[in-house]
Each structure stands twice: as structure tokens, then as C-alpha cells.
Design a protein that fits this description.
The chain has 293 residues and is an alpha/beta fold. It has ten helices and 13 strands.
Length: 293
């Protein structure tokens, strides 16, 4: 209709002003330009910032032998995007009481770990929080300029409007930090499943590690990479089709793992949350940093 209207305005020997013609061209091309921008691929990296030695596998894999142990890696994920945008998936932990309690080896504060990948804490534009457990959320305030993305239902289930703890899955200091970040206008609440929150980055629910944990799909040059976080602890969960040990709904967790495979460009691009094998399966680009491709 716009094009027809423009043609009706042209009489023999008369042409619309150049500005009108330019506006018409832009109107026609704008959707394509927006698509081209949204199609720009991201680079995905896994960053190890600590290891929990001799961790019980039965705490990760439902029904696993209680005698089995694994050195479980704690990791966050860096996404480098168009225009210098730098997004973290999860933020790790940094509090002294948590370090004293869990006694991680090779601990590097998450902001320093990110610097190994060539990005400073102040340059992180966004942090996507998969869930509110301490080892994924506690470091969120290390990134002063970042918008914090988290599921609305995850927040509302765990704290009230004053920051009071409603569910013990979140500890008191992290509840207070979440409340402060929200009061400062830095928290973006996501409403549900399959939401593209940033061009090329989509979050999904259903993993049910916590009440409304989310996992992340990111479009890379190799296709979609799925960052499962704790919705899939180890490759063994996926390979053996076994739910995670810590879930509020085992059936939903298994369904989410099967869905991850359909979303990813290939099964190897489904990346678990605590498996040290991640750092053997992908290319090392810096100490404790691998590029997922």
C-alpha cells in the first residue's frame, strides 16, 4: 500500500522529492537491515574460575554410586557479540565465607577470570543468571555496568518485594544483593520460555534445577550453542539420559535435556555446567578459557 500510494503521487514529468524517495527505500529495506543485524554471530567461551575437588557424583547424577567422585569445575560463559557487546552467562561466586566453606582449588575471582579472555569487568554489558544458587549468582555485583537478566518467576519465588528470603535455595547475602540490584534498576525480568532477550541470544525454561532456572541458546558461526548451566551438570546426564540429582522436577529436567539436543547445532554444542571435560573438548585460548566451536 505504501508503494502504491507513492506511485499515485507521481505525474508525468514530475518526481517525488529525493527525501521522499529515500524514505521509501529505507521503509522497504528496514526489515532486511534489522534481520542482518540480528543475524550477526556471537563467539562463545567457557571460563573456569574454580574447581570443587572430589565432589560427590551422586550430587550431580541422579542415582549415581555414592562412592564416585569428580573434580567439578565451576565455570561461567562469555559471549562476545557485535558492536563490542560482552555478555556473561552466570557470574560465579566471590564471598570469603563461601570460599572457606567449599574450599575450591585454583580459585580466581570471576572478574579476574573473565579478564583472561580479554574482557574487563566494566566492559560486561549483560549478565544472564541461570538460577539463584550462590555459585552462579554471588558474583553478579562484580560487573558494575551490566544489566542482570533473570526469570521473573525465579525472583518472585525466592525473595519478596523487600528482599526477604522466601525459599532457602537463595542465601541471605545474595538475596540482599538481588534486592539491591533490582532497586537500582539493573535487573531485567524475563517472562517465560523461548525469549530472545538480546539479538542472537535466547533463554529457555523447563530445566527445573530451581523453581524457574533457565538455560541459554546463542547463535554462533557454527550454529546454535546451548549453555545448559546446572540444568545439565555433566555430559553423563545427556549421554545416559539421567536427570540431574538436584531438581524440583526430574521429568521436566529430562525433557529439557532432550530439547537442548534439538535446539543445538549438534549434540556436542550442548555444554554442561560443571563438567571438567568441557576444557578438554574445546580449543584452549587462554589459561582456563576455551572457545566453544
Amino acid at each position: 500500500q505504501v508503494v502504491k500510494g507513492a506511485r499515485r503521487g507521481v505525474s508525468a514529468g514530475h518526481f517525488p522529492p529525493l527525501s521522499h524517495a529515500l524514505a521509501l527505500v529505507l521503509a522497504v529495506l528496514a526489515p532486511g537491515l534489522g534481520h542482518a543485524q540480528s543475524a550477526s554471530p556471537w563467539e562463545a567461551y567457557a571460563i573456569r574460575y574454580a574447581t570443587l575437588p572430589a565432589f560427590r557424583v551422586s550430587g550431580l547424577i541422579a542415582g549415581a554410586d555414592t562412592a564416585r567422585r569428580i573434580d567439578a569445575d565451576c565455570m561461567i560463559w562469555l559471549l562476545k557479540g557485535p558492536g563490542g557487546r560482552a555478555v556473561l552467562v552466570d557470574a560465579g561466586f566471590k564471598r570469603a565465607d563461601l570460599i572457606a566453606r567449599w574450599k575450591p582449588t585454583n580459585f580466581v575471582r570471576p572478574d579476574s577470570a573473565v579478564a583472561r579472555a580479554g574482557v574487563s569487568a566494566s566492559d560486561i554489558t549483560d549478565v544472564i543468571i541461570s538460577h539463584i544458587h550462590w555459585d552462579h549468582f554471588d558474583g553478579a555485583d562484580l560487573f558494575p555496568n551490566a544489566k542482570i537478566w533473570i526469570q521473573r518467576d525465579e525472583v518472585d519465588h525466592h525473595i519478596d518485594s523487600t528482599g526477604k528470603v522466601l525459599n532457602r535455595a537463595i542465601d541471605g547475602p545474595d538475596a540482599a544483593m538481588l534486592h539491591a540490584l533490582r532497586a537500582a534498576g539493573r535487573v531485567a525480568l524475563v517472562d517465560g520460555d523461548a525469549k530472545e532477550i538480546i539479538p542472537g541470544i535466547t533463554v529457555f525454561t523447563g530445566g527445573k534445577h530451581t523453581f524457574q532456572s533457565q538455560y541459554v541458546g546463542v547463535r554462533t558461526a557454527q550454529g546454535t550453542v546451548i549453555l545448559a548451566s546446572d540444568n545439565m551438570y555433566l555430559y553423563e546426564n545427556l549421554d545416559q539420559q539421567v536427570p540431574i540429582a538436584q531438581t524440583v522436577d526430574a521429568a521436566s529436567n529430562l525433557a529439557a535435556q532432550r530439547r537442548m539436543v534439538t535446539l543445538a547445532a549438534a549434540p556436542r554444542f550442548v555444554v554442561p555446567g560443571h563438567d571438567p571435560a568441557v576444557f578438554a573438548r574445546f580449543e584452549t585460548v587462554a589459561q582456563g578459557v576455551v572457545r566453544i566451536r
